[in-house]
Every structure is written in C-alpha cells, then in structure tokens.
Write a structure and sequence with these properties.
Layout lengths: L1 E5 L11 H14 L3 E8 L5 H10 L3 E6 L6 H16 L4 H6 L2 H13 L4 E5 L13 E6 L18 H22 L4 E4 L2 H10 L7 E3 L19 E5 L5 H21 L4 E6 L4 H4 L6 E5 L5 H6 L2 E4 L9 H9 L2 E4 L17 E2 L3 H12 L2 H19 L1 H23 L1
Parallel strand pairs: 1-2, 1-4, 2-3, 4-5, 5-6, 6-7, 8-9, 8-11, 9-10, 11-12, 12-13
Helix pairs in contact: 1-14, 8-12, 11-13, 13-14
C-alpha cells in the first residue's frame, strides 16, 4: 500500500514522551512492507530536528514543515494573532497550535506529486488538515476525552484566568474530537475501553472503530547488574494531569507504607515539566527528576517500575516500555488496558488500593528471583505482541478495510 502518515511531531525511538516513540515503531513496521511517506513538523522542542535527521539517515521518506518560532518580531506577532483568532473562532488550543499553515502547504505539494491509497492522521488535534483526494482516511485517536462536570475550584485569584481558559478549552476539545471522528473512514483506538467510549459518544460510528494497541521498538535486553537496590521508578509527562495525580498518590499514600516494610525503597518520579506540586513531593525516599535527556539509564537502574493509572484513557507507554525492557511492573487495573486483548494475561502485578500497591512492590523488591522471572516473561510478551512488525500487521488490516470501504462507495 501507499500510505501517508500525518504526525504532530517527528518519530523518535529515544523520544522523551510516548508519542514520538510509538510513531517510530509505526513508521518502521509499516515501511517494511509498504511505501510510506511521513509528513510532520519541526518546532522548537529539543531533539526534534535531530530526530528528523535520524529518520532521513535511515532512509525513511519524510516531508517536514517548519513550525519554529519566527525570527522577526513581526513574524512572531503574526503567529500570535493567527493562534488567537483561530481559538476565538472555537478551535481548541491544541488543534490551533498543530494546524500550522506550513503543514497544509506541505500536504498540498505532496498531493500534487503522487497518489496515496490511505492517509493516516495521528491524533484528532491534527484532523483539520485537507488530505489528498481519493485516499481512504484513518484517524488514530490517542486518547478519548469524555465530558466531565466543570471544576469549580479555581484556586487563588491569580489562577482564575488560566482556570477559565482550561475549563472552556476542555469543552472545545471534547466537541472538536467528536466532530473529527465523523470525517474519517476508520478510527483506531488503542484500547477496547476507548473504542467503547467512541461508540457511546457517537453511536453512528460504532462500525468504523477498530482497536489496535500501539507498539514500540524493543530496547536492549536488561542487565540485572545495573539495578539499584530499592529503586522504584514512575515516569510520565507531567503536563498530562493523570501523571500528576498518579505521582501524588504514590508519594502520599503508597510510599509511606512501602518504606515501613522495605526501608531501602526509594521512589523516583521522572518526567517532563514537573509543576511545583510534583517537585514539592521530593523528600525522604522520594526523588523528582525533571526532563531527563534519556530514560534508558533510569529504566536500567530501576528494580521495580510502577504505573498507578487512576484516571485518563488510552494505553500507558510507561507500562509498555517497562515490559519491553524486561522489568517487573506493578500497575492498577486501568494500567492494564491495551495489554489484555490477546487471549493471555499480561505479565503484570496488578493492585488497586494503596495497601495492595505497597505490598506488591515490597514483595518484588524482596524477591529477586520472582522479580526477574516476571521481567523475563514481560519482555517476551512485548516482543510477541507489541514489536513494530506485530503492530504493523494489525494496522494494515484496518487500512485495507478503509480502502475497501472507500472503493465500495465509489462503485
């Protein structure tokens, strides 16, 4: 198949967040058996330009739009005005940010050059672009947003403007997402729970939603000698509220009980942009590490990885990374979503209450043999179901269905 992928950021197997990592596995897996072109943008985020250079050096077909901060004051003001006007017209901020005119110009140039069987858009924030005519269309929904009551706790007066903006923008994001789904031939969700939510929110789409858990490129095999005694790792992008909630739950309700049983236990909270409430969790037995250049040494040194998912949707990249690295993982029932759809139980320790969570972590810290056996099975499980080739085969099935549906409507 001739596949066009439209992505919000460059794929990167060493990316700091989940999206660049899963995009790389998708691109690598699909490129093995298909003709794939990637359209993305490079902004001012660290590592984006280097990621594109790496993709080009590997031989991938990449078209890049420039989303960097304009150099002139006039250019910066024009961008601010464009974003403000777009938002005031009802577009959520995230979609306004990603809908850069340079991306549309790049897509139009590409559409004039060649024909595609299927155009794949990653995340509904990218769904407003005009895609090549004639191509079947597939939207990958990274996280399904569900309506929620307004939060009437704006905090101190200095926070009121940002609180009002966030509340209004949340409602816009929910509406924008639901409208986006209806514009595509197929919508891919990472978990059965998200697929069910799409069907519930937009019942007419039930037959157009497919479930395909994402994948990643397998990291090197674990080296037990690099583990640090008692090291417990939690990682995530702290601009994402569920990660902030999970960090606080660990620090305030789980670590105290864990350290009563295993005094050597120390929790590392690692991720991008930890706000003050997360940084303030640092103390005895708790370390906060902001914006690490690489997760590899931190994962390698962890004895146990924890993922106390309590809110939010989608799969957890932190869980898949730990499984693929061959680590013992303790997670909540919600953290197993996306790992429970292949007819076998995922090799995860699952706990719900703070007491259960602390006991599960303590048990693994104290039993090296059980911990490493769980890690060995975890890596085999990840390789079997979540490597680039396995993920690509699932996606190819969805794309062929979209192409067949588009051809049926033409007949």
């Amino acid at each position: 198949m001739r596949i066009l992928i439209v992505a919000p950021m460059p794929p990167d197997p060493r990316g700091a967040g989940a999206i660049p990592i899963l995009l790389y596995a998708q691109l690598a897996g699909l490129s093995e058996r298909n003709e794939v072109t990637l359209v993305t943008a490079v902004g001012d985020e660290p590592g984006e330009a280097e990621a594109v250079e790496g993709l080009v050096s590997e031989g991938f077909d990449v078209r890049v739009a420039n989303r960097r901060q304009p150099r002139t004051a006039a250019g910066r003001w024009r961008r601010r005005v464009r974003l403000a006007v777009t938002w005031l017209r009802g577009t959520p901020w995230r979609a306004a940010w990603f809908a850069d005119p340079a991306m549309q110009a790049t897509l139009d140039e590409l559409a004039a050059e060649r024909r595609f069987d299927v155009a794949v858009v990653e995340d509904s924030a990218m769904a407003d672009f005009r895609l090549p005519a004639g191509a079947a269309t597939v939207l990958t929904e990274h996280e399904v947003l569900r309506p929620r009551p307004a939060s009437w706790r704006p905090g101190r007066p200095s926070r009121w403007p940002s609180w009002a903006f966030e509340e209004l923008d949340w409602r816009r994001r929910c509406r924008h997402q639901r409208r986006a789904w209806g514009r595509f031939d197929r919508v891919v969700a990472f978990t059965g729970r998200d697929a069910a939510a799409i069907a519930e929110l937009e019942p007419t789409l039930a037959g157009r939603v497919a479930v395909s858990p994402f994948g990643l490129s397998l990291p090197p095999a674990p080296d037990p000698a690099r583990e640090e005694d008692g090291a417990v790792l939690f990682s995530g992008n702290f601009t994402h509220q569920p990660n902030r909630i999970g960090a606080r739950w660990l620090a305030e309700e789980i670590v105290p009980g864990l350290r009563r049983t295993r005094p050597e236990a120390h929790l590392r909270l690692v991720g991008n942009s930890p706000p003050a409430p997360v940084r303030e969790l640092a103390g005895p037995g708790i370390e906060v590490i902001a914006n690490p250049p690489s997760m590899e040494p931190l994962l390698a040194s962890a004895t146990v990885v924890v993922a106390p998912a309590r809110t939010g949707g989608g799969m957890r990249m932190k869980v898949l990374q730990a499984l693929a690295t061959g680590k013992a993982v303790v997670t909540s029932p919600r953290g197993t979503e996306g790992f429970d759809c292949f007819g076998e139980l995922p090799p995860l320790a699952v706990a719900e209450s703070p007491e259960e969570f602390a006991a599960a972590v303590a048990s693994l810290l104290g039993d090296a043999e059980a911990r490493r056996e769980l890690g060995r099975r975890a890596r085999q499980f990840a390789e079997r179901h979540y490597g680039p080739a396995a993920w690509a085969r699932r996606l190819e099935t969805v794309y062929r269905e979209a192409v067949a549906e588009r051809e049926k409507t033409r007949a």
